[in-house]
Design a protein that fits this description.
Elements lengths: L2 H13 L3 H4 L7 E2 L10 E11 L8 E13 L4 H15 L9 E15 L5 E14 L3
Parallel strand pairs: 1-2
Antiparallel strand pairs: 2-3, 3-5, 4-5
Pfam families: Tail_completion_gp17
InterPro entries: Gp17-like, Viral_Tail_Comp_sf
Length: 138
């Protein structure tokens, strides 16, 4: 079982059921894809990294850093920042639900960056979600 993939699924599940996010981005536009989406606004499930937390010799604690990319078509960053704020609220609303034997001990948005695309038409937000995952002994 991939801890990283399970965290990604849980993040998408949280975002596609959080009313504040859905008021700004349709669930069908919260995607796992490799390119800027055609329909905007959108949230792209991006790069990730899994790191052994080093707290157990059994190697059952993993910290996952998952990057989300928020895309909007606007001259300002206002809409992008609103979406990122709702993503933060969604993630901070409670622990992520993971498949057994995994347990999300903590989940937080550790950083958000806002960028103006060079084309002058798009705004881009980068949100880093950290999740501390514990795996139950088999």
């Amino acid at each position: 079982m991939s801890v990283d993939l399970e965290v990604q699924k849980a993040i998408r599940a949280r975002l596609t059921t959080w009313g504040g996010v859905l008021a700004l981005v349709p669930a069908a536009q919260i995607l796992d894809t490799n390119q800027r989406p055609a329909k905007l606004p959108a949230i792209i499930l991006g790069d990730s990294q899994s790191v052994d937390e080093g707290t157990s010799l059994r190697r059952t604690h993993t910290r996952v850093y998952h990057t989300l990319h928020v895309w909007t078509r606007e001259a300002s960053l206002e809409g992008c920042k609103q979406i990122c704020g709702e993503v933060r609220r969604a993630i901070h609303s409670g622990r992520l639900v993971l498949a057994s034997p995994l347990h999300c001990a903590d989940a937080l948005v550790s950083s958000m960056r806002f960028l103006r695309d060079p084309d002058g038409e798009h705004s881009h937000g980068v949100v880093v979600v950290e999740a501390l995952v514990s795996e139950a002994a088999a």
